Amino acid sequence: MNASYLSPAITLFHADGSLDLDSQKKLYENLIAHGIDGILVEGSSSEFFAMDMEQRRAMAKFAIDTIDHRVKLIVGTSSMVAREIIDFSNYCLEQGADAVMILPPYYFHFDDEALLQYYDRLAGEIHGPIYIYNFPDNTGYTIAPETVVKLAKLHSNIVGMKDTISGMDHTRELIKTVKSELPEFEIYSGFDDNFAHNVLAGGNGCIGALSNVVPEVCTAWVRAFRENDLEGIAKGQQTIDRLMDLYSVRSPFLPVLKEALRLRGISATSASTFPMPNATVEDDAAIQAIFHKDSIH
Prior knowledge:
By secondary structure, the chain is of the alpha/beta class.
């Protein structure tokens, strides 16, 4: 059974807020070495919302050059300014990114017709593949499956969607509604523990942040699906279910995942952008306890 696991790569910083490109390269190389299917940069795990456009372009160019087509590379180009999205998206595609991913507008709620107009305009001016990013916890509303079908029929460069919703209800309806008419349209879950349900329902897999920390677990899970290994599939689900506790150590969870990367020797620090809190000694103890359950070092 076909399945894919993509990693929404964390952006790593020095304590002064500058990009830590040495650690970033180490993260990308570790993901690729462990067989991850693709990398999303400047998604929600990246702190793109706290980076200016100059820093975002620098991060995108570094990722494009470093990953160098060894795996699929998607760049998140979300912004509240449509012109910035279009210009940044075309820059990334021209530099060699495989696709871009775009959130709907946030702050205000937009209805189906407004969302149709929004993505219709963007897709008409962006010269390459686009993934829609549905994240209602952060935008305040969700994108209806029927709207996704209309957009994908209007624009052949709208090729897929990341659906970041904790349950599978909406993702399941997306798979049923969209893939029944457009079977090649890609639908990924945004929470790691929904990977198996997504694939079994007919989706394409997951773009989950735990893959930054434990890519070997995620790719073993994918391999179990591809080899129809039921025992391996169950083991992957149970391991990921335990590791999901990393998300609840503190809120927001990003400093915890960064600290987990530091503890595993991938990053030099767990520095985040203001106002993200710093990881604590208590966080370290919680992370180590979660790792211990699955003999992760």
